[in-house]
Amino acid sequence: MSESSYEPRREKYTNKKKRGKKKTFAQELLSTLLYIIVITGIFVGIRTFLFAPVSVEGDSMNPTLLHEDRLILNKVGDIERFDIVVFPSPEDLNTQFIKRVIGLPGDEIEYRDQVLYLNGNEVEESYVDLSQETAEAAEFYNSDFTLASLEGVEVVPEGQLFVLGDNRVNSKDSRAFGFIDSDSVTGSTSLRIWPLDRFGMVE
Question: What NCBIfam families does the record tag this protein with (predicted)?
């Protein structure tokens, strides 16, 4: 093989080696940092706009939710009647409340003889358990009411929600602080992730 025919192949081989040269440390570091930034941005976006973990504090949602239960909060979708929702306390915006939506705009609500009535229809609340309470305690802490007696209106106003805790004898809810703005709801939850022995969908 002549020298003149060998040189082009050598040059081609040398160029290929140059193109396949490893990245410098600085390039590798920059690439890693960009990867971390992208992943972090995706995580923050999901947590901010779609889903987030939330922890239960207190007993106001017993027996459905117990103290220190951990849930996944869904921040998208419409709020429906009987959804469990999280929202800022009307009295302290730094405190988050978790309650059940009982009344939507236009609903007429009445509670009589430990029975809930929505728009004149009796509602069976399987999520409420007063079996451990005396009749006197249930009557005192979970007494009869209507929207008229609480708020002076016949139905839930537009853009508002009426919420109650499942633990009716130990819950600060719309019976105390009135309606909440539907726009103030952070999200709804129906999935418990902790403790593991109670993992699954929430009623």
Answer: sigpep_I_bact (TIGR02227)
Is 99 a residue of the active site?
yes
CA 9/CA 84 separation, integer angstroms: 72
Beta-carbon-side half-sphere exposure of residue 170 (alpha carbons within 13 Å)? 13
Per CATH, which fold does 52-201 belong to? Umud Fragment, subunit A (2.10.109)
Tell me the pLDDT tens digit for each residue of 38-80. 666 555 555 454 568 999 999 999 999 999 999 999 988 889 9
pLDDT tens per residue across span 72-119: 999 888 899 999 999 999 988 889 999 999 999 999 999 999 999 999
Active-site position among 17, 99, 143, 174: 99
Name the pTM for this structure.
Answer: 0.76
Residue 17 among the catalytic residues:
no
Distance (Å) of CA 114 to CA 31, 61, 65, 149: 63, 17, 21, 16
Taking the domains of the chain in order of start, what are their residue ranges?
3-49, 52-201
**Cβ–Cβ under 8 Å, residues 156 and 146:** no
**Residue tagged active-site, from 4, 12, 21, 60:** 60
Which uninterrupted H or E stretch holds 138? helix 135-141
